[in-house]
Amino acid sequence: MTQVRIYTTRTCGYCVAAKNLLANKGLNFEEISVDGDQAKRKELVVMSGRHTVPQIWVGDAHVGGYDDLRRLEQQGELDQLLAAQG
């Protein structure tokens, strides 16, 4: 099964929306909270080049944030990405 990772914070509405989208697809995911953890936040910025959450990976592929995830789902490309990374 493809590993899905999502970096989040507790107060992020887009994080909740992304987790709901993934859960509604029946996907298990690893949630990595960066709340108050400067080391994890720095790791996130180095890996993604972005400072915002959520940041989502499907396997080794960086999807981006919630808007990127939703766009992939609406265009039918998320399932293709999951299959390719699986």
From TrEMBL:
Role: Has a glutathione-disulfide oxidoreductase activity in the presence of NADPH and glutathione reductase. Reduces low molecular weight disulfides and proteins.
Transmembrane regions listed in the UniProt entry: none
GO biological process terms, semicolon-separated: cell redox homeostasis
Pfam family, one: Glutaredoxin
GO molecular function: glutathione disulfide oxidoreductase activity; protein-disulfide reductase activity
Protein name (record): Glutaredoxin
Keyword Signal belongs to the record: no
Alphabetical UniProt keywords: Cytoplasm, Disulfide bond, Electron transport, Redox-active center, Transport
Family, similarity comment: Belongs to the glutaredoxin family.
NCBIfam families found in the cross-reference section: GRX_bact
Gene3D superfamilies documented for this protein: Glutaredoxin
Gene source species: Porticoccus litoralis
Every Glutaredoxin domain range: 4-63
